[in-house]
Amino acid sequence: MLELSAVTYAPATVGSTVLKGVSLHAAKGQPLLIAGASGSGKTSLLEVISGLAGSQTGSIQWQGKTLNRRQRRWLCGMVFQFPERHFLGLTVSQELRLGHRRLGQEKEQEVLMRVGLQGIAGSTAPERLSGGQQRRLALAVQLLRGAEVLLLDEPTAGLDWSVREDVLQLLSNLATDQVLIVVTHEPELFSGWDCQRMRLRDGVLEPMTTLPRA
Ligand SMILES: Nc1ncnc2c1ncn2[C@@H]1O[C@H](COP(=O)(O)OP(=O)(O)O)[C@@H](O)[C@H]1O
Ligand SMILES: [Mg+2]
User: Which residues are within 5 Å of ligand 2 (an ion), measured at CB?
Assistant: First the structure.
């Protein structure tokens, strides 16, 4: 289980406090969905959890132990908003192998299967994949890294509705074995999703008791 207690984040470059005493817990089995308007601090929260941003106060624990920034970088897999803009490999295989020079064919196929990309040739250029397939590839890269906590920033942004449903289904499936935290400014798209729901409002995180308007 991942647990944040009273996490406050006030980066020197920002005049104000971006996260104000955020507490949450997320466990395998059910994703945590955090809704919030633009500028409420969603991306900052994921950056702090994943150790990409530092200098927060409060504690971040994994299985009851406080982890430092470096340890959290190993633990967490961040899937950025529009992850396809960050692909570096010329092919699907290359993208998967970036941090794994000796990745076997079998392991590659196994991870592609886990994200529903079985049957995709490793020689395919990432930009030739559809929008939904690109999101799956970004997830595969983090799974290969062995990330136990997956952090997704606006995973439905820019996808059309049919693909969106598939991606949400995949995320639900992954949440069985992975701690999964999703942040979004469009929670209504997740109305049918089985998850724990919270709302971030100007850096303050609160439980969401009512479903968002459809
Ligand atoms: N590195 C930074 N430099 C300046 N302002 C930042 C930085 N990171 C975050 N902020 C500010 O922090 C607040 C939260 O931003 P962000 O986490 O991106 O929110 P969201 O993802 O919900 O849109 C905003 O007011 C934003 O301008
Ligand atoms: Mg954001």
Answer: 42-43
